[in-house]
Prior knowledge:
Helices cover 90% and strands 0% of the residues. It has seven helices and no strands.
Amino acid sequence: MTRITFIILTLLISVSQFIFAQNERKFVREGNRYYEKALADTTKLDTTMYSQAETAYRKALDKRPDDLKWDFNLGDALYKQMKFEESAAKFGQIADKSTDKVEKSRALHNMGNSLLMQNKLDESIEAYKDALRKNPDDLETKYNLLYAMNMKKKQQEQQKNKDKENKDQNKDQNQNKDDQNKDKQDQNKDQNKDKQNQQQQPQQSKISKENAERLLQALQNNEKDIQEKVKKVQAEKAQSRKTEKDW
């Protein structure tokens, strides 16, 4: 009786595992359908379909978290939705967990793509290089590596030109500032000169006034002398008339 019960329990466990596995694959197949349907439409990026694929893959992984292939599909769905930060993290985790060099190289390649789309050029270049160390014959990774390196070179040249423009602009600004300071100094110099002239003008007026006073005094003195001479002449004439009358 005990033996029969054991056999029945074994059969029940086997059936449960089979049903459980079927449910997992059901979600994976569902995710694949959504993914392939979105991929088939080349006229637009159907993020809604990719989002449904992501949901299905997550349901499958809830039941089997260690399945790297399903995890890889989830990373692809995240990438297609332009969730590049999440997809980079997901492919990085897959690369760390994978023991197969080719699978590890594919994960690193996709991680490099996710980093490249975030304009993290240095990190993407390192991911591509690491992928090529695992699989040196991967031409697609070689192409993406060269593309990322060219992008970095262009950015460096643009930054160099920008720094040069900023340097020239600062030089022009400093030159303009120096010219303005020079103009200001010249203006201050002219103002000081005008101020000195203004200070000198009252002094010159004072000297002219003194000269005028001296000239006026001299004229008054001359007039006084003339008046005295006139009076003296008149007195002499009066005395002469008086003498003649007395005679």
